[in-house]
Write a structure and sequence with these properties.
Elements: H1 2-8, H2 12-40, H3 42-59, H4 66-76, H5 82-93, H6 99-130, H7 135-160, H8 169-174, H9 186-194, H10 197-228, H11 232-244, H12 249-263, H13 266-288, H14 293-317, H15 326-351, H16 354-373, H17 379-399
Helix pairs in contact: 2-3, 2-4, 2-5, 2-9, 2-15, 3-4, 3-5, 3-7, 5-6, 5-15, 6-7, 6-11, 6-12, 6-14, 9-15, 10-11, 10-14, 10-15, 10-16, 11-14, 12-13, 12-14, 13-14, 13-16, 15-16
Keywords: Membrane, Nitrate assimilation, Transmembrane, Transmembrane helix
Organism: Undibacterium terreum
GO molecular function: nitrate transmembrane transporter activity
Length: 400
């Protein structure tokens, strides 16, 4: 972004617009993509999104103006809906006693991709410059790489995955085989999810953890450059460390949720999420008030750990909200994360000061933790989930 800012002579207001555009369209696409998974299955949905999403990733490398860059940045936001498909796919593939770990581990690698990009893209740009390519062309050539990788992954996903343990939805429906929860997809899935109050509570909590995470990804590098005077390479490395926490931290949050539920109940998962969000909010306040780059990095890693774990703990709850409308639930809550990022972007745009924005966000995150405590499950709901788990374990033992 510092290189692109110089080339297009971008103002801070325009950079804010770009950051908002990058995540705004994802809200709409995430709402749509979840029910599509219920209807067509995650295999077809994911392959299609990767193929279509690669086009603006490749196209942004050809942008010659702020307006063109903004347009492609907006279109790239649709790729963020891939997260919902991933969470849907792992939710139907893994049993209730380990699904939190599975969801969080898979999502963690997605988040780690953001952190890897923060570190690798500047290095790729630097390598191209060392080979004699101009800086203005280097960032364009570098952006072609992720577009090509997406096309490769589309082919691999189509070839090596299936919708659920019993096969693909289309073939199962053609053979009259039942699909877990009687999923139909479309409006029915979205409407059922929308009527569940737990969905909207988790919508808020996810806005407060994943929304903040996206916001930090967008502003971290330039914050370290402008506020602490770091070089582009050093700022990229510092920003990348935040995203790379997702390699283990998000999975840790899901794993802790599974272990907590095993010792307690479904409500214990929500209580854990509350504690993690309190840690995130307080850590973010420390980051906002750090007086040196060393303290800032330490604080960022501290609150980043809680942020990633909270994201994992949130989606460790998702499979248990409403199995018949899993796509709708995953889509709405996932969209909440992007709503939080967009809101944070507008907040920074209105305040005009990154440090003050971070302080306000820290306060808001701490307050929003109360929503996690309000997520509660009835005795009947708990009994139903326990019966499902017992049945799966019994079938596993019979098969063994």
């Amino acid at each position: 972004m510092p290189v692109i800012k110089a080339e297009f002579h971008l103002s801070n207001d325009q950079i804010a617009n770009l950051n908002i555009a990058a995540v705004a369209v994802t809200i709409l696409v995430r709402l749509i993509i979840g029910p599509l998974c219920d209807r067509y299955g995650p295999r077809k949905t994911y392959t299609g999104l990767l193929l279509i999403g690669a086009l603006p990733v490749l196209g942004v490398a050809m942008a010659q103006s702020y307006e063109a860059f903004l347009f492609f940045r907006l279109c790239i936001g649709a790729v963020g809906a891939s997260f919902v498909i991933t969470q849907y796919h792992t939710s139907v593939m893994f049993a209730p006693n380990v699904v939190g770990t599975a969801n969080a581990a898979a999502a963690g690698w997605g988040n780690a991709g953001g952190g890897a990009a923060q570190g690798l893209m500047p290095l790729m740009l630097t390598a191209l410059v060392m080979l004699g390519v101009t800086e203005a062309m280097s960032w364009r050539w570098a952006l072609i790489v992720p577009g090509v990788v997406m096309l490769v992954m589309a082919a691999l996903y189509w070839k090596y995955t299936q919708d659920c343990p019993n096969g693909n939805y289309a073939e199962m429906r053609a053979q009259g085989m039942p699909i877990e929860g009687g999923k139909k997809g479309g409006w029915a899935s979205f409407a059922a999810a929308s009527a569940n109050y737990r969905v909207w509570l988790l919508f808020i909590t996810y806005a407060a953890c994943f929304g903040v995470e996206i916001f930090i990804h967008n502003i971290a590098a330039i914050y370290y450059v402008d506020h602490f005077g770091l070089s582009l390479k050093a700022a990229g490395t510092a920003a990348a460390s935040f995203g790379l926490l997702a390699l283990f931290a998000r999975a840790l949050g899901g794993w802790l949720s599974d272990k907590t539920a095993h010792r307690g109940s479904l409500n214990s998962r929500a209580t854990l999420l509350f504690a993690l969000m309190i840690g995130e909010g307080l850590g973010l306040l420390c980051f906002a008030n750090a007086g040196s780059v060393t303290l800032a990095i330490v604080a960022m890693l501290g609150f980043g750990l809680f942020t990633h774990m909270a994201c994992g703990a949130t989606y460790a709850l998702v499979p248990f909200i409403d199995r018949k409308a899993l796509g709708g639930v995953a889509g709405i809550i996932g969209a909440g994360g992007n709503v939080g990022a967009v809101a944070a972007g507008f907040l920074m745009k209105s305040m005009g000061n990154t440090q003050q924005t971070l302080a306000v966000l820290g306060t808001l995150v701490t307050v929003s933790a109360v929503c996690a405590l309000a997520v509660r499950f009835t005795s009947e709901h708990k009994a139903s989930e326990q019966a499902l788990l017992d049945g799966l374990l019994q079938n596993k033992n019979i098969t063994a």
